[in-house]
């Protein structure tokens, strides 16, 4: 494999990224078909997961796919579902070579796609830009390998780590550019998650606004007793799906109210401090979610941190100090030793208007 191969695979990865947040429970895949150094077809997984990237690229390439090379960010599927296997489609189109970034860990594929291609005489090269591909597929890999989605915790705070004054006033700590970026980030995730405290305080819509995404994220609210305001959330079921995680003690009347509106209810076990985070994440993974964007608040965010289910931190920090009497971005973690604090590695720092965006990945 050479630099031209790497260049075409980078293009395929950039195409795959267009599917993030829109294709769950499927992976976001990109495909580029090249004949004699010229791109003849390209595609990415479409909203809802169909059609697949390879099918889109093959349809665009038509007869030019014969003898060509296909660059695919994930092993072509080998199982019959709603559509025939992509590996079978590549063979039928006469593709001579397939370069894939990584093997698909889904047990229905797991090497079978590559084997199907080789059995048909197609040259297969694996592992090109695999690290980049695995990074892009972090959510899909998490669901397949851990049974839960990749969880990103977003915190928008003052320089001293506060999210609101003691009175609760918080609009706005960060500027309009940062808030616009948050909406863009929401669109790249399958779901937006908040705790009951945030829902009660803000009655947020939790939708992507400012532009029209291909698919609105699922809105997930974790509230043990379903004691939620019946305002904007209740009046927006036509805008985006709403899933409510609750405990066994949630009143029947509240359950009926939300079910009648069309919300999906998820009953989960409760601990001493409310809903338990690991069962919540397993339940979301079982429903097909691969990437979840958590927007707090402080106590709920701390519960996720304590449970060890936060994979990524996304911080927006403003150049303002609110002081020790303001509300912290994170509730108590109960740490007794610094060595026990969860550690994350810095992966990005970007200026957003007058604020700073910083992203961190769990070690």
TrEMBL record:
Under Enzyme Commission nomenclature, its number is 3.5.4.26, 1.1.1.193
Question: Which keywords does the record carry?
Answer: Hydrolase, Metal-binding, Multifunctional enzyme, NADP, Oxidoreductase, Riboflavin biosynthesis, Zinc
Query: Would the keyword NADP turn up in this protein's UniProt record?
Result: yes
Please list the reactions this protein catalyses.
2,5-diamino-6-hydroxy-4-(5-phosphoribosylamino)-pyrimidine + H2O + H(+) = 5-amino-6-(5-phospho-D-ribosylamino)uracil + NH4(+); 5-amino-6-(5-phospho-D-ribitylamino)uracil + NADP(+) = 5-amino-6-(5-phospho-D-ribosylamino)uracil + NADPH + H(+)
- What molecular function terms (GO) are annotated for this protein? 5-amino-6-(5-phosphoribosylamino)uracil reductase activity; diaminohydroxyphosphoribosylaminopyrimidine deaminase activity
Q: Show the CDD domains listed in the entry.
A: Riboflavin_deaminase-reductase
Pinpoint the CMP/dCMP-type deaminase domain residues.
3-125
Which metal ions or organic cofactors does this protein require, according to UniProt? Zn(2+)
A Pfam short name: dCMP_cyt_deam_1
Q: In which pathway does it act?
A: Cofactor biosynthesis; riboflavin biosynthesis; 5-amino-6-(D-ribitylamino)uracil from GTP: step 2/4; Cofactor biosynthesis; riboflavin biosynthesis; 5-amino-6-(D-ribitylamino)uracil from GTP: step 3/4
Provide the cofactor note recorded for this chain's UniProt entry. Answer: Binds 1 zinc ion.
Q: Which PROSITE patterns match?
A: CYT_DCMP_DEAMINASES_1, CYT_DCMP_DEAMINASES_2
Record's function text: Converts 2,5-diamino-6-(ribosylamino)-4(3h)-pyrimidinone 5'-phosphate into 5-amino-6-(ribosylamino)-2,4(1h,3h)-pyrimidinedione 5'-phosphate.
Assigned protein family = In the C-terminal section; belongs to the HTP reductase family.
This protein is called: Riboflavin biosynthesis protein RibD
Source species of the chain: Sedimentimonas flavescens
Q: What is the organism lineage in this UniProt record?
A: Bacteria, Pseudomonadati, Pseudomonadota, Alphaproteobacteria, Rhodobacterales
